[in-house]
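Reviewers asked in the last cycle whether our approach scales beyond single polypeptides. To address this, we selected a multi-component target totalling 903 residues and predicted its structure end to end. The input consisted of the following lines:
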Amino acid sequence: MASFAKAIVDGILGGAVYALMAAGLTLIFGVLDIINIAQGILVILAAYLSYALSVHLHLDPLLGLLITIPVMFLLGVFIEWAFIRRLRGRERTAMSLLVSYAVAVIIEGVLYQSFGSTPVTLQSWYATSTLHVFGFFLPYIYLIGFGLAVVALAAIYVMLYRTTFGRTVRATVQDKVAARLIGINVDRIAALTFGIGVAVTAAGGMVFGMTNAFNPDSGYDLISRLLSIVILGGLGSIGGALAAAMFMVTAEEVVNIWQPTWATAVYYVVLVIVLVVKPAGLFGKQAARAQ
Amino acid sequence: MNALLRTEEVSKAFGGVQALSDASLEVAPGRITGLIGPNGSGKTTLFNVITGYERADSGHVYLDGKAITNFRPARVFGLGIGRTFQLTRIFPSLTVIENMLIAGHLKHRSRNPLAVSGGAAARHHAMGLLEFTGIAGHAGALAGTLSYGQRKLLELAYVLVADPDVVLLDEPAGGVNPSLINHIGDRIRELNAAGKTFLIVEHNMDFVMGLCHDITVLDSGTVVATGPPEQIRANPRVLDAYLGSETDDND
Amino acid sequence: MIASKVTATQVTAPRLRPAQLSRAGAIVAVLAALVAFPLVITNPAITNYGVLTLIFVAAAASWNIFSGYSGYISLGHAVFFGSGAYFTGIATKDWNLSGSAVFALLPLAGLVGAVLAVPFGLVALRVRRHTFVVITIAVFFVFQLMAYNLQSLTGGTSGLLGPTINFSPATFNNPFYYIALIIAVIVVALSFLIRRSRFGLQLRAIRDDEDRAAGLGVKVMPVKLSAFVISAVPTAMVGGLLWYYLGLIDPSSGFDPLFDVAVVLMAFLGGLGTVTGPVLGALLIEPARLYFQQQTTYIYLILYGALFLVVILVLPRGIIPTAAERISGWRARRKGSTGQVAASPAPAGPDAVTDRASEPA
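The resulting structure, written as structure tokens, was:
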């Protein structure tokens, strides 16, 4: 049963990283009612950025985060300002899916053009070495990823619940019209939130890039996992995303022990089952809204 | 007198807010009954409970003596109760005439699902109603392009398509200019003379007092007075309800 | 986002004969041209464009029957496309078919699509619209995964090869062209019939206000599900046709995320929820896509995405409705009267004073 225990540990550690990326996605939905399908390819983009920095500037990816996080943040702000903000009307959420899908396709094309289709990986001393503790070999990168995720999620939590900015964000989530009426600059909140939601992909991208060989095509698989996690946890709930991510990744690791080829199907199967039983997701906030 | 539509001690709470408590209301057949009360008194909630858009926590609703409590909207609609919505809920991307056809689709059905929607009879009927309310000229226009007043008229025509016995109107005169209000009032009187029963929620006092035979006053979810207009106008409890409680939430 | 088909026809009076006749005439002319096309232009490189474009006309129009009319955006129709392709491939192999006999499999492929659509729809249509989209994506990936993993059935990563086809090289494309044409014509005709039928009216009402429609007695779930199943059939059929035409299908081409992007873009560009919109969209986009794909760069991805963005942000209702509105507005201004068409709001009347937009954003 050692492999079982290992699967659980890997699941928790790996799940934290997915939770971070999913948290960005669910935060964006909670504040803007937007489903950012581009989140997957943005992670890949961030991974490629880290890669480029490491190959051309010999910058260690962890240090590279100092650059990639602000870059991704600004990119997120730009995307919101340029495209998402123009969406209006009742079908805004459905349209956002299409718009972000379009943005994702563009980014994918740019990545293919710039880097080609050969898979690459991020290299670093901690990518392959492990920590030997309690009979487990824990890859350093997983620990770092877990650490990054914990720090980032804690930071998001603190921001949301302990700062004035966070309060205005939560007010916007509750009622945009009321927020506007009391002087909150909803547009700015939207842009900043989108930026934050995308900025977390920098960390996720680094960890992902180090633990996987990736190419532009990897974005699809990634976004489908993130979507499953976010829906399972309930659109808009960060805590839900965390729980769902841990659960899904652990489940995948466990299934992987017996049936590796079907491991990724776990995501979808669980998702479908949960949605059949509880259409709003485990912690969904949308129960009363029509359509 | 036997009430055609009756609610008996209906209660409904939303979270911590008790929207209705033991609300009992009677609508006599062939008469126009008004339902008034300050903002937040529960008028639209009562409508929603009667027509099945909300479930009552307790209490009953009777149509012609038969219980229809918590029936689904479609069923209530099929039993002969029609209603309009405060914020007009028309289908904006369908044309006006198509809106009418959807409202009446249960009555005029053909076996072939691919048959052109609405045979001649249905369209004729629909056009007749559009003429009655005065917007026949826009039959081919997309409902989404109608002005607010025109939408109100469409909602009115809508509710008549299925020829309901009881018509529930939620603020038919809300946000509409005076000449149109008179127009609507006249139409209601005409329909009432032809036998239809009305229950009308309204804030416009002149409209209500001038149109309704009986008036029920709701305040904070309970019925505080009921009777003919002159009585209600002079009732101190009613004045109290309006002037005393300045709650500002919507129904 | 509302797609509008402006109905400029009178409501109660019988339709004007000349307009109806000229429309029918135009349709006949277009059909004749399409039929004659491969006989006149015999260059296979060009008729190849024809085959693939018609396949996408059918796919886009088919997708539109469900998503365009009901407003539930499906990003998983590739499931039907790929399943149709794989079914046709597997059946051809198992039953040892070749030549024209394979074409007889296509209706069966359509049936496979329908059968898949039932449980798919029952699960997916219970949830809200944006969750629906995500479920379609999830199911899509499940199918792609199955295509990779069920190797004995699907050939895994290498996919399924088609048998050698003994059609003469000069007119090789033609049978495929005509079959695609037939399917496309049927789908478009079906789309037209549905749109003006009671069924179509119910779908469109669902798109506008599902709860209100339900309150008026529309049986929402059966209506949505029927549209979903109907739209699956032609999609699966053209999937099968494409497999036979290309002689190969593999998980990444059979279950290609860009298939849905293409189909959605075509329908949006031409006009979501209209009859001719998807056709126009396919006619514009597919030849362009083929052309760019042959340029061996990934520029076409960038162009795709950019075009998609432009369409959604600038022309959300698509070309046909926007054009129709412009034309009718121009016509109305010319005549100086308000016709019964949508663009001009009501003339002064009892409601002139308190006009106010009441659609909640």
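The longest strand of chain B covers residues 17-27. We regard this as preliminary and will revisit it once experimental data from Aim 1 are available.
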